[in-house]
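User: I'm writing a tutorial on reading structure tokens. Could you give me a worked example: one chain, its sequence, then its tokens, then a sentence or two explaining what the tokens reveal?
Assistant: Sure. Here is the example chain.
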Amino acid sequence: MSSGRALFTRFPGNPIIRAADLPYDANAVFNPGAAQFNGETVLLLRVEDLRGISHLTVARSRDGVHDWRINSEPSFRSAPVRYPEEVWGIEDPRLTWLEEMQTWVIAYTAYSRRGPLVSLARTADFRSFRRFGAALLPEDKDAALFPRRFGGRWAIIHRPTPVHGTASMWISYSPDLRHWGDFSLLLAPREGAWWDSAKIGLGPPPLETPEGWLVMYHGSHLTASGVLYRTGLALLDLEDPRTVLRRSDEWVIGPTEPYERVGDVGGVVFPCGWVLHRATNELRVYYGAADTSVGLATARLDDVLEYLRSSPRPTPQRRRVRL
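And here are its predicted structure tokens:
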């Protein structure tokens, strides 16, 4: 398969969810986390209200494509009195099932007066939510957990923004989901004219496959008319996810459709959730389109892994950075 852009097929009925589909007034709906739960697909939608503040709302569908049943009011609101880091809203959830704890953990961006940061919460039923609180200091975002421990520790991919240099993807470890350390650089933007040259960040949570942890990430590129957000792929070692086995040269989903090119932030595809239907080998990616609506793109997992086998092995880099 020669082109990564041939991997994913957009659902012809995109966008699958718009602000007008919500049962209450809102400006935009985008960047959903995704899960399979009780025989349905659950999306945890980022909804921007008419103040410009975001919250999270649950949507359910039996087939993961049509007839979305959306909660009649926000499902998970910011709580700035108790959690002041959420004063300007909560955004961009990623959902990971932790079998050991029998719970879904949500990594989301809390927008504080000091900038965005990574917070964690958990739910067993997508009806009630319990916060762990802030996990990583600002500025940091685009985070998701791995579903199992490595050497007794949980791992998280996240995207701190340094004062100097470019925003890159890092991996950190914790014994208890509260105290994080052992920070290692995972992937960095590529210099020059590359599609992912400005900054990069994790898309959906890492997906375990026989060949490694499949990662989809977004990359931005500054053009004369603004910034474009596209998505690429990488494969990490199963037992040491700090080791990058493959990284795609090409983007695999980019903003080409009108609903991706025109919106509150035009020229953006931004995935936060995916679901693998193992019986059919279909990988469904749910993404934000132009920060305005929700799109769906699908691929065969076997085709994605075949494409990555032909992708380059990254140049070895100094992985661990002591701060």
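What the tokens reveal: The chain has one domain: 4-309. The longest strand covers residues 212-223.
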